[in-house]
Every structure is written in C-alpha cells, then in structure tokens.
Amino acid sequence: MSLRFRQLQAFHAIVEIGTVTGAAEQLGISQPGISNLLAQLERQTRLKLFERSKGRLVPTPEAGVLYQEVDTVVRGLDHVGQAVLDLQNKQAGQLQVASPHALSFGLMPKLIARFAQERPDMSISFQSQYSTKIQEWVMSGLFEIGVCEMPLTYDAFDARIIHVETLLAIPQDSPLARHDVLTPQLLENEPFIVMGPDHLTHRRTREAFSNAGVAWRTRVHTHLFKNVLSFVQEGMGVGIIDPFSLNFDFEGGFVTRPFQPTVLMDFAVITSKARPLSALGKQFHETLLAELQTYAASARG
C-alpha cells in the first residue's frame, strides 16, 4: 500500500482540529483538496476514519489507532522543516525538550526562559506529553532531551534517575491541617482524588493503606496532577501530588503535609544512546539536571 505523506498530513490535521475548514487553513490548501485527500486515504486503507457530528468530524476507533502512528511521522517532518529554516536563518541552534505535564505548567517554561536569556537566537521546541510518548520521541530523534516517569520502556537511553517525594494536598480549611504529618490511620475513609490505577502514585498509596490495614476511599480519578489539585481546591478530597505542580500553583485554597510512609515518584532525564547531544543540548542537560536535583528526595533530607 502506497500512502502519500500529504494524505497523512491532511488526516492528522483533521483529527487535531476537528473540521475540514480548520485543517485546510492550517495546511494552506483548499477545503475540496483536504476532502479529496481524506477520501483517497479512506479508499486506499478501506477504513472509515470519521463520523460527522454537529458539524465536526469525529474520529472512529480505527482513526484513533492510525493517528498514534501518523502523529510521530507528521511531527517529525515538521521538525525537519524547522531545522531547514534554522539553517537558512543561521540560527544559533534549536533546543529540543519534552516533559510530562506535571513539569510543563511552571518549571520547564521558567527554566527554558532562564536558559534562553543569554541565547537570544536560540529556537525552542518544547512539548508536554505522557511519558511513554516522550520515550518514543527521544528514541526516534524528534527530541534531544526528555523527562519522563519511570519505568523506561526501551533500552535505548542514557538516563539519569531522580526520586522525588510527593506531598499530600488538603483543602485549606480541613481539620486535617492540625497534623504535622498525615498517615493512613489519620486518613481512613477520607475521600482521595487520585491519578489512574496504573499510575505509580496510585499503586504506592494503595499499598501504603493496605499495609496499614486501613480502608482507602477513592472519590475522583483523573489523569493530571493539576486536575487532582483543582479538585482538592474545590474541597472534594485530598490528593498525593508531585512538588512541581504544588510549587507553581498560586491560586491557594490548599495546604500540604508530608504523608507517611513516603510516596516517591521516579523520574528519568533521558537522551538517546544512538545520537550524541548537540553542544546546546549538553548545556541545557546540565542545567536541567541541576534544577531537578533540588527536588530530589535526598536533597530535601
């Protein structure tokens, strides 16, 4: 089967934007052109890729699977195009970094901005994603440096592991705030806002309650620490949260306490074994490691 890149690019744009009009504007081609490319792709693959709903194109399950494969290809060519522009404009280099969402709302933008102050001609490519996708991006060369949660899925990285201690966030007016340290016994049947059951913090918190012989009540399941904290701020329960999300939230409405036994998160700063880092990448890699080390459990005593 010979699929053309333009067909995949049109499909990718429609999934991301949701309308043919928006996809056409993004790619700079006509709406009929986009529709024709999509029709060609569906005909060649013999798959129905979209359903129409209230003026939008809703991807079918088959489209969702295809998108996961196409996403890396399309973004990869975008990076190639950006690299060509950088060379044409004699840019000083491109910083290519990816991190999980927990680091993307405060720490990484501030760190990159500080790093860029003395490098005004540096171009920056930064994305936040789930850790498995970040590993794929670094392995394929789309990004030089990645920060991800353990475990590592591939044996393709040079990795520096950093263990970070989480804290328990509780509503500001909660009676639990009178305690200096909170334990499973003190939190029996207290409603918890939690990450999904596959997340490391979920498993380790569940284990702590099980070992203590105490009932653990989970009320809300979500997929971002920022969401966990938002529910805590609304008074819906308590939540185990990473220090990055806590340090860069300025809305208030919560307090934190250590949780015992300690629930650690294991992060890795990864680079590809197959490709040496650029000079710019090496400099940022050192800066990033030094910053993350201040959050390490050992550094916090």
UniProtKB/TrEMBL annotation:
<protein>
    <submittedName>
        <fullName>LysR family transcriptional regulator</fullName>
    </submittedName>
</protein>
<feature type="domain" description="HTH lysR-type">
    <location>
        <begin position="3"/>
        <end position="60"/>
    </location>
</feature>
<keyword id="KW-0238">DNA-binding</keyword>
<dbReference type="Pfam" id="PF00126">
    <property type="entry name" value="HTH_1"/>
</dbReference>
<dbReference type="InterPro" id="IPR005119">
    <property type="entry name" value="LysR_subst-bd"/>
</dbReference>
<comment type="similarity">
    <text>Belongs to the LysR transcriptional regulatory family.</text>
</comment>
<keyword id="KW-0805">Transcription regulation</keyword>
<dbReference type="GO" id="GO:0010628">
    <property type="term" value="P:positive regulation of gene expression"/>
</dbReference>
<dbReference type="GO" id="GO:0043565">
    <property type="term" value="F:sequence-specific DNA binding"/>
</dbReference>
<dbReference type="Pfam" id="PF03466">
    <property type="entry name" value="LysR_substrate"/>
</dbReference>
<dbReference type="InterPro" id="IPR000847">
    <property type="entry name" value="LysR_HTH_N"/>
</dbReference>
<dbReference type="GO" id="GO:0003700">
    <property type="term" value="F:DNA-binding transcription factor activity"/>
</dbReference>
<dbReference type="InterPro" id="IPR036390">
    <property type="entry name" value="WH_DNA-bd_sf"/>
</dbReference>
<dbReference type="InterPro" id="IPR036388">
    <property type="entry name" value="WH-like_DNA-bd_sf"/>
</dbReference>
<keyword id="KW-0010">Activator</keyword>
<keyword id="KW-0804">Transcription</keyword>
